[in-house]
Amino acid sequence: MSAADPILDAAIASLEESGFRRDVASVALILGSGFGAIEERCEASAHIAYEEVPGFARPAGTPGHVCRLSQGRLFSRNVLVFRGRYHAYEGFASRELVFPVRVARALGASVLVATNAAGGIRDDLLEGSLMAITDHINLMGINPLVGRQRLTHATAFAPMAGAYDPSLLDKLEAAAARAGESVTRGVYAAVLGPSFETEAEVRMLRGLGADAVGMSTVPEVICARALGMKVVAFSLITNRAGSREDSHAHNLSRGSNTEGRIARVLEELIQSLP
Hints:
By secondary structure, this protein is an alpha/beta fold. The chain has helices at 6-17, 94-106, 166-178, 199-208, 218-226, 248-257, 259-272; strands at 27-31, 43-49, 68-74, 77-83, 111-120, 130-139, 183-191, 212-214, 230-240. The longest helix is centred in the C-terminal third of the chain and has 14 residues, at 259-272. A five-stranded mixed β-barrel has the order 5-8-7-6-9. Helix 3 (166-178) crosses helix 7 (259-272).
């Protein structure tokens, strides 16, 4: 590891002391809201709570966001599993949001699989739909590459065209089909939150070309691409954006109730990844 980033070096050293090994898992999986129980299927050779790793911020304690990192066998592949993520609306800085991605890259992961819960904007994206993310619109007002000090090994002016790898998108669609699921492609808009969108904001997002909206994922994707990782991501549509019945509890419940479906898709996808 480069001595240019002592905090990242300390994180990796601590993880190695806890049983994590470099260059074992090429795939890193981030489990979004409501999907955390999938991590319990991992036959972990090592696991640790985020707050025990140097450089990881202490989780804010948002309901449904258990934060733990595991390394081991999941769906017959060696993977790094990030159960839970940091959110900007919890008060974390952009670089805190993406530190797990930097750790994954330092441990040897070259592919990032990201999942999230999102609100459907496009008319066909109803509750329970799965959307493969083809592109994003960053309306969060933050970017993890901002700052005088560059992220170690990251491209400062990272291109975002093709951020969601086309070949991995094809693999995701094929994986969903094998799992008996239908997945549709769409553009994900990321907003700051934590309040849900107004009806006027949903109309604006629709006009901008967004098909679904959420409060995560984009900073992690930007960081992963700047570090040279390939990215594939998909959303579970847990609500219709702009609904007066929007609630975090509803979205968590929708994710938990759909865990089996998500797990089947992830199993097929992860087994097909390079």
